[in-house]
């Protein structure tokens, strides 16, 4: 217990004079033990000082790293925002370009007429050719005939005369005529199938602005829609329930159903 009274306190480092005085005051204390204790205390003090400096340096580096990380996160967020804006712009441009390409495809076909149910051995027209038919149709049904007229208004007169069966000769009444559209246009028009059925069911007139878009005619004004979703929103706004039809239910419109076996099927009237 006496020796403990003369040991230096934790963290205290004795000078040579103090060490000599301590030895003189404690002649009974073992000199080796005292010197060892002094050396250990000095080493611990130096280690604590070194660790403190190292920890301070690490904290400084971590502070710098945190600042750089925050800057990188902000840059990444800004870059992500700009990328999303450009992506949205590119998507809109792609949709716009696709609509223009479809329009060009259909404009190149606007003078065409597709004739159906013409026997194979009675094709006596010029500038015409037969197109492939769906595989599910029997071989006895002739392929459609595609012909191009030199003038658009002549084609419109022929189609109007075809809609009015009374003006046609008896031998031509079994022949069906359709406008010629690209496969993509037909696919997109089929997406309006339930929409057009709902409009006709509620006696709402409509017409085609182009091969795909619809113009809904109402007393308060005409509305142009470019997708079935827009029509569904309008129907919900007008509180008109949407008809739900089975996918396998045949359409009453031969143009929307691709091909019909009976030429007596009538096309629903559009304004």
Automatic annotation (TrEMBL):
Q: Which residue stretches belong to region Disordered? A: 1-26, 245-271
Q: Which organism is it from?
A: Pelobates cultripes (Western spadefoot toad)
Q: What is this protein called?
A: Uncharacterized protein
Q: Which Gene3D superfamilies match?
A: L1 transposable element, C-terminal domain, L1 transposable element, RRM domain
């Amino acid at each position: 217990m006496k020796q403990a009274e003369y040991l230096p306190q934790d963290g205290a480092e004795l000078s040579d004079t103090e060490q000599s005085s301590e030895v003189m005051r404690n002649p009974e204390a073992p000199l080796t033990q005292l010197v060892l204790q002094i050396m250990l205390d000095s080493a611990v003090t130096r280690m604590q000082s070194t660790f403190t400096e190292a920890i301070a340096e690490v904290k400084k580096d971590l502070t710098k790293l945190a600042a750089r990380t925050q800057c990188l996160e902000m840059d990444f967020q800004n870059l992500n925002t700009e990328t999303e804006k450009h992506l949205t712009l590119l998507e809109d441009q792609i949709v716009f370009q696709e609509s223009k390409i479809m329009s060009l495809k259909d404009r190149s076909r606007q003078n065409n007429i597709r004739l159906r149910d013409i026997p194979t051995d009675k094709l006596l027209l010029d500038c015409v050719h037969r197109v492939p038919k769906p595989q599910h149709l029997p071989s006895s049904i002739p392929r459609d005939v595609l012909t191009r007229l030199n003038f658009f208004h002549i084609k419109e007169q022929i189609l109007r005369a075809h809609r009015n069966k009374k003006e046609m000769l008896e031998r031509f009444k079994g022949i069906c005529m359709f406008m010629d559209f690209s496969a993509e246009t037909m696919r997109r028009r089929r997406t309006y199938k339930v929409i057009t059925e709902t409009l006709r069911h509620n006696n709402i007139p409509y017409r085609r602005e182009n091969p795909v878009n619809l113009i809904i005619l109402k007393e308060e004004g005409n509305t142009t829609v470019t997708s079935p979703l827009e029509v569904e929103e309008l129907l919900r706004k007008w509180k008109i329930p949407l008809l739900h039809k089975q996918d396998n239910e045949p359409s009453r419109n031969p143009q929307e159903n691709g091909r019909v076996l009976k030429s007596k099927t009538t096309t629903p009237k559009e304004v």
